[in-house]
Amino acid sequence: MLLPDDVEGPPVKVELEDVLFSRGRFALRGGGTFDEGIHLVSGPVGSGKSTLALLLAELLRPESGTVRRHGVSSALLALQFSEYHITHSTVAEEVESWRLEPDDLLARADLAGRADDDPFHLSRGELKRLTLACMIARSPDLLMLDEPFSSLDCAAKRKACRMIEERDEGITILFSHERAVLPQVDAIWEMEGGTLKALGRVPEAIPRWRHAPPYLKYALEQGAGPENIRLSDAREAICRIRG
Fold first, then answer.
1. Where is 236: in which H helix or E strand?
2. Is the pTM of this model over 0.70?
3. Burial letters for 102-126: b for 16+ Cβ neighbours within 10 Å, e otherwise?
4. Order of strands across the sheet with 142-146?
5. DSSP string of 78-96?
6. Count of CB atoms situated within 10 Å of the CB of 220
7. 10 Å Cβ neighbour count for 147?
8. pLDDT of 91-101, one tens digit each?
9. Chain-wide mean pLDDT for the chain?
């Protein structure tokens, strides 16, 4: 049923209830609710972030507990290795397979002039930019990005952050161990040893973030309270207390 333009649909959220998934000696446990906004799931390599992404994408099933989606009609998962997404022989055809216009999309991904290239002739960073731009442009209700900053240099990471921040609806979940260049987020989660912990909304969650980047820890040690998790937020917080 179509709703009038001035009537909002049901709230979009994903609920995990006492989820347990195990493989060999590894076990993942956790619960919580991902609501609209940008969520960062942080933690060291091997902590279970990618496994959690596959569970939320419903590509894995938990042994016990449930993953429930509410109001989610479209979902996309960006895998850590972008080459797994490629299905066509030219960059333009790859963009068109997402039902997007190549010229606009390639300009957005800083790949203008590469339309006729074989996608596998792109560098890993270029391929990451291409896939990320396509997925964000498709604007799904639920967007899951597994290590979206890997293979990107600092300039490309900052641009990726801006693209992520421009999503103004739906749920975006970042699974990342990045500790240098990060976007503005709404909530922080931590994975460690397979256990998922919800730290809460930002900025209240920042002091509880064990894997916070060094610049955030420094700001907190100085008595500053950053409003968000970007380097610029830490700088502004320090300037406020020293101004």
1. helix 231-242
2. yes
3. beebbebbebeebbebebeebeeeb
4. 64-70, 13-23, 26-35, 195-201, 187-192, 37-42, 171-176, 142-146, 75-78
5. E-SSGGGG--SSSHHHHHH
6. 17
7. 21
8. 999 999 999 99
9. 91
